[in-house]
Amino acid sequence: MLQVENLHVSYGGIAAVRGLSLTVAAGEVVAIIGPNGAGKSTTLAAIAGGVSPREGTITYGGMGITGRRPEDIARMGVSLVPEGRHVFATLTVEENLAIGTYMLGHRSKTSADVAAVLERFPRLQERRHFPAGRLSGGEQQMLVIARAMLTQPKLMLVDEPSLGLAPLIIDQVYDILLDLRRRQGLSLLIVEQSTSRILKHADRIYVVRSGAVQLVDRAQALKDGEAIKRAYFGFEEVRA
Ligand SMILES: Nc1ncnc2c1ncn2[C@@H]1O[C@H](COP(=O)(O)OP(=O)(O)O)[C@@H](O)[C@H]1O
Ligand SMILES: [Mg+2]
């Protein structure tokens, strides 16, 4: 479904991503983990068209999308949920959903569109007349995921959904994401800094450091954590 090959992205001469390659198959949950500054967010931004690669190719559904405009990529079924849970604090949950997709180049949504998405998000459903600024961190994370669902994506790119959330709330956010995969066949590419939750939920894991993939394997194979730690921190094995 998605193929990223030899991706290079620079910001004013500083290389943020250096030769990164990854794939996501239809229906897969794939994770990118790695330390702060590894180039994870930049990789998602490049896939979504927010930054232009200096080198490399991005293919989605068999079509080259490298360097295409974000609105075009969104219309093809790729939706980015950026880090930081940006919502309009004074607008209600419903209003956030109704207008939030403008930014992605979509028409404004009807109340029927909004109602259909809210059915998948019971907590938001209950709070649909609340100002978004009064939601908890977990509810705001659900709101930005719900907003992304309004564009009817086939592939969702989710940047650090667990950041700053309590473990129980992280589980609820992942329950929502996995439910969307199960019921709607959504494919997921999820960035996280910590491995604790993602190892449980991902099919495959890429460990990224300094803008390139250091390790890739099935999540199941990485359960013991040692290989991840070495790839994540760059420890070399000490030989006697
Ligand atoms: N808009 C930007 N302008 C300049 N440098 C940036 C910008 N965004 C990110 N960087 C730099 O690119 C590198 C990778 O950043 P990022 O993709 O945000 O990493 P991660 O998401 O893994 O923490 C970092 O060194 C960061 O400082
Ligand atoms: Mg980031």
Percentage of residues in helical conformation:
25-40%
Overall residue-averaged pLDDT value: 90
CATH superfamily of one domain: P-loop containing nucleotide triphosphate hydrolases
Count up the helices: 9
Give the ordered list of helices and strands: EEEHEEHEHHHHEHEHEEH
Structural class: alpha/beta
Q: Could you give the distance between the termini?
A: 44 Å
Here the CATH topology of one domain equals: Rossmann fold
CATH-level-2 architecture of one domain: 3-Layer(aba) Sandwich
Shape: globular
Bound molecules: adenosine-5'-diphosphate, magnesium ion
Rounded Rg: 18 Å
**CATH top level assignment of one domain:** Alpha Beta
Main sheet overview: 6 strands, mixed
Unreliable runs: none
Lateral arrangement of strands in the main beta sheet: 6-7-8-3-9-10
| Strand element count | 10
Q: What proportion strand?
A: 25-35%
What does this structure look like?
The chain has a domain at 2-84 and 154-233: P-loop containing nucleotide triphosphate hydrolases (Rossmann fold). The longest helix has 18 residues, at 167-184. 42% of the residues are buried. The protein has 240 residues and is an alpha/beta fold. The mean pLDDT is 90. Helix 6 runs parallel beside helix 7. The strands form two sheets. A six-stranded mixed sheet has the order 6-7-8-3-9-10, with helices on both faces. It has a four-stranded antiparallel sheet with strand order 2-1-4-5, covered by helices on one side. The termini are far apart. The chain contains nine helices and ten strands. It has helices spanning 40-48, 70-75, 93-99, 111-118, 122-126, 137-149, 167-184, 198-201, 226-233, and strands spanning 2-11, 14-24, 29-33, 55-60, 63-64, 78-81, 155-159, 187-192, 204-209, 212-218. The radius of gyration is 18 Å and the shape is globular. Bound molecules: adenosine-5'-diphosphate and magnesium ion (MG). Magnesium ion is lined by residues 40-41, 83, 159.
